[in-house]
Amino acid sequence: MHLELSDEQELFTTSLREWLGERADSSSIRGWLDAGDPAAFERLFVDDGWAAVGFGEDLGGQGGGLLELALTAREVGRAAAPSSGWLQSAIVLPALSDEPALMRAATEYFDNGFPGKIFPAMRELIRRLHDAGCEVWAVSSSNEWVIRAAMKHFEIPEERILAAAVKIEDGIITDRLIRVPSGPGKPQALREVVKKQIDAAFGNARWDTEMLAMAKHAFAVNPNPDLEATALQRGWTIYFPDGTHHR
User: Residues 112, 136, 164, 142: is their CA dihedral positive or negative?
Assistant: First the structure.
């Protein structure tokens, strides 16, 4: 799925990607992780002003909203930069009012940003799995409100969604993380919650590798080049839906 971006949002995305390439290249990331200081990236991220984009001025940010936060998360994830602190803020700060307000914003974001961007073949596959009586789970490192909004289009109930989540008290969202299912966190969440053998798993990025590896049958759907290489090496099925192409 791809967002339709304005010229300003395209410029923001390009600028952030270039900054990440200069300040958070793979050797720098390995150095931070080897030194046990993953927060080094977030200090750069804050000092250079990127961490404030997507947050309202009333929260000390530079403006923007949920779409800008999603674009930032996509680019930071693409660079594999250690960003758990920023992610926690991105989940919590926009929702300081109440959860229903955030759910409404998430639904508006998805319904306005993704019309016609769902692969028909995947929608049909999930419908057939439902008809066959299969349990279908959605696992994502994106925040649970956006994923809940998205999964309504696939008739996947909220109780079968494992996404980035925080504690909620009396309808107010707190800053205490429950989970962020990414990389090894995806199979961990499935083992803790589903507690069953996974028959089939579908993913499109390297952060899905561990989840795909735990399933009896793994499918790389419109994969990023790094996941495609892993899928070829491990003999997993690779599928490019109509309208996509090899990257």
Answer: negative
CATH hierarchy code of domain 7-95: 1.10.540.10
Q: Is 0.85 topped by the overall pTM?
A: no
Please tell me if the domain spanning 7-95 has the same topology as the one spanning 113-239.
no
Eight-class DSSP state of 131: H
Fold of 113-239: Rossmann fold (3.40.50)
Residue 74 one-letter amino acid: R
Question: For every one of its 247 residues, what pLDDT tens digit does the chain have, with 9 covering 90 and above?
Answer: 445 667 887 888 899 999 998 888 888 888 877 776 666 787 788 778 887 777 666 555 667 777 787 788 888 887 888 776 676 666 655 555 566 777 877 787 777 767 677 888 899 999 999 999 999 999 998 888 889 999 999 999 999 999 988 888 877 777 677 888 888 899 999 999 999 999 999 999 888 999 999 999 999 999 988 899 999 999 999 999 887 766 5
Whether 140 and 100 have beta carbons less than 8 Å apart is answered as no
Phi/psi of residue 16, each to 5°? -65, -40
Give the length of the chain. 247
Strands (E), the chain: 138-143, 161-169, 172-179, 200-203, 217-221, 237-239
CA-to-CA distance for 148 and 158, rounded, in angstroms?
6
Measured over the CA atoms of residue 22, residue 23, residue 26 and residue 31, the dihedral's sign is positive
Residue type, 83: S
